[in-house]
């Protein structure tokens, strides 16, 4: 299931140059179109696509925001070297499946927001004591990093569940790439390896449920590992 380029353009919120997409933007949109079609047609997720006319200094190429009850999939690729660097070393023939997985990751953030689950923990999960730091500022920063890491982990699992559903033959490639790019640094906001290690094989995902429900089931197990 894919969306044609005209339909993809109809997703785009009004922004300068959005109707004249660059080659990179077009390639990423088309690669992610199966995920966007599923999110729109099967789950009715409220997603707008926003194309920034110029990336800011700290912008990542693809990100998900939430405003006025709608998800905003933001493309910040113009003037952004990360738009090509993120796939450095990946053969051209293998890039599409990674872009599709990255799109699924961002849609995972939308699903959490749309269901009122952002930063919420599974029912019955008892959180362990947080490390006590020297200042309230550091304590708040540590909590924010932990909350971000958990949301990134949920969306990484969505990306893998989607890959198992749509591109099962390339699951190991996507998993290996995620293991490579996720920082193996303790307490990092993007160190999702506690969750990725639970999903080394795509068979962990139950095909009877949608990828978001599949991710949620495994995510709770990863929370326990992350607490250790």
Task: Please sum up the structure shown.
With 228 residues, this protein is mainly α. Helices cover 51% and strands 7% of the residues.
- Spatial extent as radius of gyration: 18 Å
Overall, the morphology is globular
Beta content comes to: 5-15%
Which percent bin holds the helix content?
40-55%
Beginning-to-end CA distance, first to last residue: 41 Å
What is the number of E strands?
A: 3
Q: How confident overall, as mean pLDDT?
A: 86
Poorly predicted runs of 5 or more residues: 3-7, 13-18
Note the run of SSEs as H and E: HHEEEHHHHHH
Oligomer: single chain
The structural domain count equals 2
Our count of helices gives: 8
Please state the structural category: mainly alpha
- Biggest sheet, spatial arrangement of strands: 1-3-2
Question: Main beta sheet: strand number and arrangement?
Answer: 3 strands, mixed
Task: Write a structural description.
This protein has 228 residues and is mainly α. The chain has 2 domains: 5-88, no CATH class; 135-227, no CATH class. 51% of the residues lie in helices and 7% in strands. The protein is built from 8 helices and 3 strands; from the N terminus they run ααβββαααααα. The chain has helices spanning 5-11, 23-41, 82-85, 92-114, 136-166, 171-181, 193-196, 211-227, and strands at residues 47-51, 62-67, 70-75. Strands 1-3-2 form a 3-stranded mixed β-sheet. Strand 2 and strand 3 form a beta hairpin. The chain is globular. The N and C termini lie far apart (41 Å).
